[in-house]
Amino acid sequence: MSGQRGERGDRDKESLLAARQDILARHCRLSGSGRPLLCAPRPVEKAHADAMWRQQGNDRKAILLDKDHAEQAAREMSELYGEPRYVYRCPRSKRGHYHLTKNRQDVPPRP
Ligand SMILES: [Zn+2]
Predict the structure, then answer these.
(1) Which protein residues have a CB closer than 5 Å to ligand 1 (ion)?
(2) Which of 6, 85, 92, 111 matches a 20 to 30 Å C-alpha distance to 65?
(3) Crossing angle between the packed helical segments 7-27 and 67-81, to the nearest 10 degrees
(4) How many CA atoms lie within 13 A of 33 on its CB side?
(5) Is 100 inside a domain boundary?
(6) Is 33 part of a structural domain of the chain?
C-alpha cells in the first residue's frame, strides 16, 4: 500500500493545528474548560448600530494573557507558519488585552 493522495497533507495540517493549539493553550487566557477565551463584542457594541463603532476584526480572536505572552506566542506562531505574526493591543479592551495578526495593517497606530 502506497498511502493515499493527500494523506501527508492532512497529517501536516493536523500537526500544525495541534502545535497551534499548544501555543494558544500556553499563552492565552483560558476558560474553565481549558479553551482559549475569544474576543467578543461588548454589550455597548452590540447595542450600537454604527458599523464603525464595532471592532468586528477582533471577533473570535484568542485573547493573549499579557504582552510578554503575546510576544512569545507571536514568535512561536511565526516559526510554526514561516511568516510573521504581529502583536497588537485590542482597541476593544479597557484593561488591555492582546491579539496576534498576520497583517501589519491590522495593528492600530499607537495613540
Ligand atoms: Zn480583543
Answers:
(1) 39, 58, 90, 92
(2) 111
(3) 170
(4) 2
(5) yes
(6) yes
